[in-house]
């Protein structure tokens, strides 16, 4: 599906939240920068990332997992 916002579309909130955690794992962002939550788009009905508003509880709950996976990804890239 394509959205007029040109943002990546996710069919469900769960898929968007899973992708958000994966994104936070692969890319370094400060605590309140980068994508921090998901929302349902009024234009297309899909879910997108947002950098506005409150940090997702899912990010807060998985902060140590995100950090550990980020470090693992760093070393994996470095040792290739």
Can you summarize this structure?
It comes from Reichenbachiella carrageenanivorans. With 80 residues, the protein is mainly alpha-helical.
Could you list some keywords that capture this structure?
80 residues; mainly alpha; two-stranded antiparallel sheet; globular
Set down the secondary structure blueprint.
Blueprint: H1 13-26, E1 37-40, E2 47-50, H2 57-61, H3 63-78
Antiparallel strand pairs: 1-2
Helix pairs in contact: 1-3
Order of helices and strands: HEEHH
Number of strands: 2
Calculate the mean pLDDT score and round it: 91
Radius of gyration: 14 Å
Biggest β-sheet: count, sense, barrel? 2 strands, antiparallel
Number of domains: 1
Tally of separate helices: 3
Shape: globular
Residue share in helix: 40-55%
Poorly predicted parts: none
Structural class: mainly alpha
Strand content: 5-15%
Organism: Reichenbachiella carrageenanivorans
Protein name: HNH endonuclease
Structure in words:
There is one protein chain. By secondary structure, the chain is mainly alpha-helical. It has one domain. Helices cover 44% and strands 10% of the residues. It has helices at 13-26, 57-61, 63-78, and strands spanning 37-40, 47-50. It has a two-stranded antiparallel ribbon. α1 (13-26) packs across α3 (63-78). The protein is globular, with a radius of gyration of 14 Å.
């Amino acid at each position: 599906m394509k959205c007029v916002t040109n943002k990546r579309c996710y069919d469900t909130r769960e898929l968007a939240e899973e992708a958000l955690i994966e994104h936070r794992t692969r890319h370094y962002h400060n605590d309140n920068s980068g994508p921090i939550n998901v929302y349902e788009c009024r234009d297309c009905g899909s879910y997108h990332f947002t950098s506005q508003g409150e940090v997702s509880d899912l990010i807060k709950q998985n902060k140590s997992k995100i950090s550990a996976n980020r470090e693992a990804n760093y070393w994996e890239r470095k040792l290739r």
